[in-house]
């Protein structure tokens, strides 16, 4: 193909390409084929990949397809670039060989419930989708179709089959996940998914590892079941063996909230190996990865060969919070146990809403809406950055990992960000204190931009400037 040293795997690449789902975009098929060769170490670490033009010519595909595949491989940490030298394969740990798939657990006797408070909407509130751009008429049509005789009956506790099938198609195309509809359990959102996992997999005294920064609601759920909780920072996962024995780890490998970090491929593989060796469950909370900058990253679930990963997704942030629909993707051995716990909680969710969502996805409206929102959020993020840069806040560091639904304003250590959160709430600004997600984190404010237009954001920034300006000058709060 060229002097890169890839020639011995040329046939393997063609074979891997032929294995990929033909319904996927061409760049994603190439990405998956190359990723598989890298994961199987059929392309060694340090190998230089062919130039995009050479590979495109050899495979008879467009150069842009190859460029997009390389960009996604680089974003996930499978390759890296050297200025003037090209793209090279990263050194990755070898996957654990052998071993048995995980098995289900008997259902714990108790079903506890943790409590939390959902904040009301306000200026610059993070995590709220752009309801001013929601396709109400299309959603209304989907709802009208759902209100049939079937839609008025009680549904399957596991969730509407057609919705589960649409989720399977979506995850395969967008997240690289080979999933069967029988593995999908519809929930009322990520929080209920975490609650089900805690009740089904964790017993009192079990050690659970939670990511920091992270949602306080998750911590409350695991405390409610009597877990011993320890914490880790995503950026400190170089030596996973130092984490010790645990029953479950909750993490957001594709996009941490609120800092936006992503977990590189070598760390993902190391965690999967560690989970297999230590009989540990990995609960992957796929928070707002749909809106990350660039092409969609593969889920950690897609790398799991030993059924140690449980994947949690939600539609509350991609569509609207009041929908109250999410899902878990489970190893088949766990499905029945989770269903037993589910029947104790609520027995199932609104069937019309599930049928409407299935229709919304099947006709392509869901995909079109997400593509529009990704562009809109990119524009609104840039507007907020410009407003901050033009204000008295321009001296504050802005943590922006690209994409997503929020930014972080770093504050001097002398300022109490939680006191500021309360003070700003009185002014109608619903930013969140960074230390509320990790007490050891540097002080800051988590600022949303997705739910408001320029005028609303300008008003919110003006209030931030008025409240913070004097405090920044004196260093007190």
Automatic annotation (TrEMBL):
InterPro entries: Aminotransferase_I/II_large, HTH_trans_reg/aminotransferase, PyrdxlP-dep_Trfase, PyrdxlP-dep_Trfase_major, Tscrpt_reg_HTH_GntR, WH-like_DNA-bd_sf, WH_DNA-bd_sf. Residues 24-92 form the HTH gntR-type domain. GO terms for molecular function: DNA binding; DNA-binding transcription factor activity; pyridoxal phosphate binding. Keywords: DNA-binding, Pyridoxal phosphate, Transcription, Transcription regulation. Pfam families: Aminotran_1_2, GntR. It comes from Marinobacterium lutimaris. In the C-terminal section; belongs to the class-I pyridoxal-phosphate-dependent aminotransferase family. The keyword rRNA-binding does not apply. It comes from the Bacteria. This is Transcriptional regulator, GntR family.
């Amino acid at each position: 193909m060229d002097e890169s040293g890839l020639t011995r795997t040329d046939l393997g690449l063609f074979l891997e390409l032929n294995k990929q789902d033909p319904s996927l975009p061409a760049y994603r098929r190439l990405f998956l084929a190359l990723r598989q060769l890298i994961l199987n170490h059929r392309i060694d670490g340090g190998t230089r990949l062919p130039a995009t033009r050479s590979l495109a010519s050899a495979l008879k595909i467009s150069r842009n397809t190859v460029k997009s595949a390389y960009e996604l491989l680089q974003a996930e940490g499978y390759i890296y670039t050297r200025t003037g030298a090209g793209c090279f394969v990263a050194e990755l740990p070898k996957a654990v060989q052998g071993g048995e798939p995980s098995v289900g657990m008997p259902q714990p006797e108790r079903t506890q419930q943790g409590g939390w408070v959902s904040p009301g909407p306000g200026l610059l509130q993070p995590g709220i989708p752009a309801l001013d751009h929601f396709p109400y008429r299309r959603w209304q049509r989907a709802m009208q179709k759902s209100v049939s005789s079937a839609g008025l009956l009680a549904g399957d506790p596991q969730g509407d089959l057609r919705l589960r099938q649409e989720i399977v198609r979506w995850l395969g195309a967008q997240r690289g996940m080979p999933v069967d509809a029988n593995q999908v359990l519809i929930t009322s959102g990520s929080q209920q998914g975490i609650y089900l996992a805690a009740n089904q997999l964790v017993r009192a005294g079990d050690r659970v590892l939670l990511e920091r920064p992270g949602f306080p609601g998750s911590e409350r759920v695991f405390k409610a079941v009597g877990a011993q909780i320890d914490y880790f920072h995503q950026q400190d996962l170089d030596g996973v063996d130092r984490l010790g024995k645990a029953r479950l780890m909750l993490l957001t490998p594709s996009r941490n909230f609120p800092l936006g970090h992503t977990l590189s491929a070598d760390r993902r593989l190391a965690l999967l190996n560690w989970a297999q060796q230590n009989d540990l469950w990995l609960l992957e909370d796929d928070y707002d990865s749909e809106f990350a900058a660039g092409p969609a990253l593969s889920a950690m679930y897609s790398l799991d060969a030993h059924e140690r990963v449980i994947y949690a997704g939600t539609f509350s942030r991609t569509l609207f919070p009041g929908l109250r629909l999410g899902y878990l993707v489970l190893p088949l051995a766990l499905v029945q146990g989770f269903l037993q716990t589910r029947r104790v909680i609520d027995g199932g969710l609104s069937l019309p809403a599930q049928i409407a969502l299935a229709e919304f996805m099947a006709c392509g409206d869901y995909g079109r809406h997400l593509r529009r929102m990704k562009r809109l959020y990119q524009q609104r993020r840039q507007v907020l950055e410009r407003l901050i840069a033009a204000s008295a806040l321009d001296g504050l560091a802005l943590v922006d990992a690209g994409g997503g639904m929020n930014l972080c304003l770093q504050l001097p250590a002398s300022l109490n960000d939680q006191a500021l959160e309360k003070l700003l709430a009185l002014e109608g600004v619903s930013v969140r204190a960074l230390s509320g997600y990790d007490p050891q984190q540097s002080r800051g404010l988590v600022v949303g931009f997705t739910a408001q237009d320029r005028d609303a954001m300008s008003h919110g920034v003006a209030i931030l400037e008025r409240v913070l300006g004097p405090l920044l000058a004196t260093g007190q709060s």
